[in-house]
Amino acid sequence: xxxxxxxxxxxxxxxxxxxxxxxxxxxxxxxxxxxxxxxxxxxxxxxxxxxxxxxxxxxxxxxxxxxxxxxxxxxxxxxxxxxxxxxxxxxxxxxxxxxxxxxxxxxxxxxxxxxxxxxxxxxxxxxxxxxxxxxxxxxxxxxxxxxxxxxxxxxxxxxxxxxxxxxxxx
Length: 170
Fold this sequence. Notes:
Elements: H1 4-13, H2 15-25, H3 35-42, E1 46-50, E2 55-57, E3 65-71, E4 74-79, E5 85-91, E6 96-97, E7 111-114, E8 118-124, H4 125-134, H5 136-168
Antiparallel strand pairs: 1-8, 2-7, 3-6, 3-8, 4-5, 4-7
Helix pairs in contact: 2-3, 4-5
């Protein structure tokens, strides 16, 4: 009969666990986390596979989770003035989106559709709350990255608005 230690050893040596740990280690979201902290964070993610053409979420849905593309591709679209979808971006492995759902539960500002079969890691707001409570060092690292990400995106939009304004004034 295998001991608890043997069972734990098999769990930590599991290839899928190790591969996902390496994937997470390379994400800016996990920057500075130790291996055991990555393991704790990994357990907070929900893994889901989406079929080609399947919606991860639609513009206007209430956001509840951050998404990380583990494999495949996702297209982000926003409804244009005529109501037709306008492509914002196509995201591949390692891309993170939907982060605002971790901060506030408001309607999504865009839709996300799987371009091909795609495996996603989802971090729900309730899981982030647990991380912040039980593993504050991990939670602070995640929140620090989210703050940097949002700051960079706001700066980029601000630069686009400034550039567009300069074009109109000429």
